[in-house]
Amino acid sequence: MKILRIPFLAIILLISANCQPKNSKAEKTVAQETSSVPVKVMLSSEDLQEYETAYFASGCFWCVEAIFESVKGVKEVHSGYSGGKEKNPTYEEVAYGRTGHAEAVEVFYDPKVISFTQLVQVFFGSHDPTSLNRQGPDRGAQYRSVAFYKNAEEQKIIQDYISLLETKKLYNRPIVTQVALFEVFYKAEEYHQDFERKNPYNSYIRNVSIPRLNRFKENFQSYLKEDSH
Q1: Where is the signal peptide (predicted)?
Q2: Number of structural domains, the chain?
Q3: pLDDT of residue 39
Q4: What is the pLDDT of residues 112-147, one digit of tens each?
Q5: Residue-range definition of the domain harbouring residue 223
Q6: What is the pTM of this model?
Q7: Spans of the chain, pLDDT less than 70
Q8: Which of 9, 30, 60, 114 is labelled catalytic?
Q9: What contacts 137, CB < 8 A, 6 or more positions away?
Q10: Which has the closest alpha carbon to 151: 113, 112, 179?
């Protein structure tokens, strides 16, 4: 389970601002770390209405968000919660298994550039769909594998792709991914959004999220945005 504390970078910034002399080694380190965080162009709610949406859950949403953000045709990704019945869940409630929700992502994409079928391929190609209620070090139903569909066409695309994977016998164990009708998505707290991009020195990001992203990139190079290679 991910345990959130005050980000290391934020602590260093606070110490630097109040306790360190100017031009100190600590300040230089902070400046280097801050400058390494890439700038992201933010889209308004009105801008996002022009695009289609897709919803997936496959473990830690920090990891999943970063993966879909790297895919061409994807305009924005939000981390959040879906698949349960409790209204307006909090991160603490979901993380400790107090709701039926899974950590999920909301993907805004341009269907002229990438199709829902290709997003399903990204989903299955970026996690272990045979792992029940677990991805990497994260355990619990909140980390389960779920491919959500909004209509019969999307449902068929997901089920057909699962059948294809099973026919090709790509896995030694049965696929346990849930295929579920999408009902509602609750956007996670703001500090979770773009967490990997904003916190590149976080230990979980460095040891779990970035390696997972890099494995995906190795296998899906043709799907990547130009600046994601």
Answers
A1: 1-19
A2: 2
A3: 62
A4: 999 999 999 999 999 999 999 999 999 999 999 999
A5: 40-228
A6: 0.83
A7: 1-39, 229
A8: 60
A9: 208
A10: 179
